[in-house]
Amino acid sequence: MNNEDEFYDAVTGLDSDESYEGVSEVSFKDAVVFDSSSQKNNESVPQENGVKKHRTSLPAAMFSRSTVSIWSILKKCIGLELSKITMPIAFNEPLSFLQRITEYMEHTYLINRACSLSNSIERMQAVAAFAVSAVASQWDRTGKPFNPLLGETYELTREDQGFRLVLEQVSHHPPVSAFHAESLVGDFVFHGSIYPKLKFWGKSVEAEPKGTITLELLKHHEAYTWTNPYCCVHNIILGKLWIEQYGTVEIVNHSTGDKCVLNFKPCGMFGKELHKVEGYIQDKSKKKHCVIYGKWTECMWSVDPRTYEAHKKSERRGDNKKQKNEEQVGAVNDDADDMPEVQETVSVVPGSTLLWRIDSRPAHSAEMYNFTNFAMSLNELEPGMETNVSPTDCRFRPDIRAMENGNMYEASTEKERLEDKQRAARKERAKNEEEWSTRWFQMGTNPYTSSQGWLYSGGYFNRNYQDMPGIY
Fold first, then answer.
1. Mean pLDDT, to the nearest integer, of 167-192?
2. What are the φ and ψ backbone dihedral angles of 11, each rounded to 5 degrees?
3. 3 state SS for the chain
4. Hey, how many other C-beta atoms are within 10 angstroms of the C-beta on 270?
5. Does residue 371 contact residue 58 with C-beta atoms inside 8 Å?
6. What percent of the chain has pLDDT over 70?
7. What is the dihedral of CA 85, 88, 94, 99, to 10 degrees?
8. What is the CB neighbour count within 10 angstroms for residue 40?
9. Per DSSP, what are the bridge partners of residue 182?
10. What's the pLDDT band for 335 if we cut at 50, 70, 90?
11. 397: number of Cβ within 10 Å
């Protein structure tokens, strides 16, 4: 059995478990319900002051995961890639991974700000803030997005934020998602290929970042590249799920030689470093121009390096005095990795400039997979989409749609049907000695890094969707 067969014939875990029988509809009396049927009857999308309005809640609140045990599936997977394992659908969230990537664009205003600035160091500050903000939506997002089907696509146009975007699942094993976003007024292009490696380590799941992200500021003839930090979800088996991001992210301006090095800090033994990000921006002569600091869950600031170092020295003197008078006690728990108490908030160094602050989540977010307002809108079906959007768009996936509507049994059976259909299509291609052909992206060389990646070949927004594969 080759690797591809091993992936497609993976154990389906609890996806067809009889525990979902009778749970055809999940009702939550306190949930704020979005009435999709009323929108279907409207001839146009709701608007407010000429700007398209997007929904701010899901049709149904999330399904409880407390009754589902995951240990029986994961205990055989320690140290292995989780792409070989199909997880129980109760641990999903009603979004495709393609839509999860789209959440990079939630703070597009930071790119627009970078485009408007005349100083290259200030532009790098805005780009660095954007790179941090791109992972901010993962805070408390412990649900697993649906694995995209081969050939699955997603598009999004947001006039209010000034961009349009298209994604395609270009490979299934290894799973690779390619994306291309562009400014509606021609200011920037943002693109890349994402293929994270997931590994299970007994009590946690780690996502190793793979794939280069490229941002081009067209007016300034600049290109920036970077790779996302590691992400770890703790207490998969027992205890409260919590997330940390860690690792070094290096953002390079290939036109000027400027570089930003960001250190996403692991939480540490006593949790003092939880969520913290710290780094600096230097020019091509390695002169440090500013220090960047904050938390990826809250905000990012910039300050002069000398001011920052003087402040840190003062803090260290204070900490040393405190440690002499206090005994540090570390709790030991073999059953769960207790999440450290969040240290509120970022200690702002006098003279700092605010680069980015996270938006508040809606009051009902906890009952809706901890989605942001932006995430709430991503799977929304608007009037006319059936005729204007590619039939491979993941808004049309029946398993995700069923889960969003609270129908877990239908979601589980549809997910299994789609996987069987995908498996049969792969075997048919193998029988006919046919290779899968991508539609909107082609393998090519990134001109800035010389590495191989999936590049947008154009044409998606011409709306010619003939001969698209029937993947659903």
1. 96
2. -60, 135
3. CCHHHHHHCCCCCCCCCHHHCCCCCCCCCCCCCCCHHHHHCCCCCCEECCEECCCCCCCCCCCCCCCCCCHHHHCCCECCEHHHCCCCHHHEEEEEHHHHHHHHHHHCHHHHHHHHCCCHHHHHHHHHHHHHHCCHHHCCCCCEEECCCCCCEEEEEECCCCEEEEEEEEEECCEEEEEEEEECCCCEEEEEEECCEEEECCCEEEEECCCCEEEEECCCCEEEEECCCEEEEECCCCCCCEEEEEEEEEEEECCCCCEEEEEECCCCCCCCCCCEEEEEEECCCCCEEEEEEEECCCEEEEECHHHHHHHHHHHHHHHHHHHHHCCCCCCCCCCCCCCCCCCCCCCCCCCCEEEEECCCCCCCHHHCCCCCHHHHCCCCCCCCHHHHCCCCEHHHCHHHHHHHCCCHHHHHHHHHHHHHHHHHHHHHHHHCCCCCCCCCEEEEECCCCCCEEEEECCCHHHCCCCCCCCCC
4. 14
5. yes
6. 78
7. -10
8. 10
9. 164, 189
10. low
11. 25
Q: Which of 144, 165, 168, 207 is nearest to 403 (CA)?
A: 144
Residue type, 367: E
Asked which of 48-57, 109-118, 308-317, 356-365 is least confident by mean pLDDT, the reply is 48-57
pLDDT of residue 117 exceeding 80, the answer is: yes
- Encode pLDDT of 270-324 as tens digits: 677 889 999 999 999 999 999 999 999 999 999 999 999 999 888 877 665 555 5
Task: Provide the pLDDT for residue 420.
Answer: 93
d(CA 274, CA 171): 35
Nearest-CA neighbor of 12 among 87, 74, 93?
87
Compute, in degrees rounded to 10, the torsion defined by CA atoms 346, 350, 352, 356: 30
Q: Say which amino acid occupies 11.
A: V
Indicate the pTM of the whole model: 0.83
